[in-house]
Amino acid sequence: MDLLGSILNSMQKPPTASEAQKKAIKKHKEALERKQKEEKTILDKFCKRVEEKISDFIIDGTKPYLQFEPMDQMYRSVIRDAATTAGAQVYSFGQEGIDRYCVVYLKDRGPSEDELTVRRAGGIWDEEKAAEMAQKRLEMEKQAALENEEEKNRKRKHGKEELSGTFYKQKYAHLIGQEAAIDAAQKTNMNKSYGEVPSENKKDLRSIEQTMADIKAKKVKKAETEKNVDGSSSFGF
């Protein structure tokens, strides 16, 4: 025997598995396969049940949504696939690993903004909550409309106050000059409550006696004028 052969023969061979170890390995493998088979069976049953629920929900067409209990991501993915295949919408809400759940909606009737807001905040959505949110939204819309109307009235009033001055200045500034236009606009603003004539010019400051005397003088003057005209006519003029 050569040197290499003697060395190989002197080396210790790897230990062989005992019969007990072989049985333990085989048992563990069989248990793992059995568990995988059971999980697949459970998953198949779950998938079938989900498909039936979603199908009944779509056929019924009267319910606003179909909500499932919180579950692991693997089962939620089954719900998502089944809903997508059936032509429905599906949303997930809640915290991962704690209370995350799926909600299925009809294709043409998805969740409202109010519902999304409540669910994403961890709230419970039901008919009572929907009515509450609808009332709040209505109040907000009324308040917004009221504020919008007040703003329009304020602008309209502000526009009327500046109409006579600003419009006059802008319209005629190129004709009469910027300073003259400003002066004219200011004068117009001062007299706007009484037209374009200063209110002082419209007031009669005379006393009653002076007014009667002025009326009498006008009558006398008129009579004398008519008399002179008649006299001239009699002389052929």
Write up what this structure looks like.
The longest helix has 50 residues, at 127-176. It contains eight helices and four strands. It has 237 residues and is mainly alpha-helical. Helix 2 (19-60) runs parallel beside helix 3 (73-86) and helix 5 crosses helix 6. The N and C termini lie far apart (180 Å). The protein has a three-stranded antiparallel beta sheet with strand order 1-3-2, covered by helices on one side. A hairpin with a 7-residue loop joins strand 2 (89-93) and strand 3 (101-105).
Topology:
Blueprint: H1 3-10, H2 19-60, E1 66-67, H3 73-86, E2 89-93, E3 101-105, H4 113-120, H5 127-176, H6 178-190, E4 193-196, H7 199-202, H8 208-234
Antiparallel strand pairs: 1-3, 2-3
Helix pairs in contact: 2-3, 5-6
User: Roughly what percent helix?
Assistant: over 70%
- Radius of gyration, in angstroms, nearest whole number: 50 Å
Q: Structural class, please?
A: mainly alpha
Oligomer: single chain
The topology string of helices and strands comes to: HHEHEEHHHEHH
Shape: rod-shaped
Query: What about the largest sheet?
Result: 3 strands, antiparallel
Mean pLDDT: 80
Could you tell me the number of beta strands? 4
| First-to-last CA distance | 180 Å
* Strand order, sheet with most strands: 1-3-2
| Beta-strand percent range | 5-15%
Unreliable spans: 188-192
- How many helices does DSSP assign? 8
Search tags:
single chain, 237 residues, mainly alpha, 3-stranded antiparallel beta sheet, 4 strands, 7% strand
